[in-house]
Design a protein that fits this description.
single chain, about 140 residues, mainly beta, four-stranded antiparallel sheet, 2 helices, about 15% helix
Length: about 140
Amino acid sequence: MRNLSLLEPAFNDPFGTTLSRFFGPMAQDLEARMPKMQIDVTERNGTYEVKADLPGVKKENINVRIDGNVVQIDADITQEKDSRSNGGKVLRSERYQGSVSRTFSMAQDIDEAKVKAKFQDGVLILELPKKASQASHKIAIQ
């Protein structure tokens, strides 16, 4: 995919490597529980369409930021109260509660004024019109 670039932070320092070795088992368990936001990106008629799966998220807990050609989607996942409050006890809980985020870049800048977003049935749909590129003009050399 040349139209889509993922922006993932990378740790290249020895201190970070040491910490990841020490906390490795806990981090792997957390990563296994943390859902990754799945996205589909299509391009049609000068517009990118992004579909992001966000099951169990309320639309007021979703934030979308656009800066040039970079798109960032953040969401907070919350759970309803568990049965401990009613005198019961939780035997096992695997559902994630916290924040998920996805950042990626498109091949062209996005016209932020024309962006449309809707959220339906756990899927965020973004219509991201491409910004009209300004035609280059020839400079006369004197």
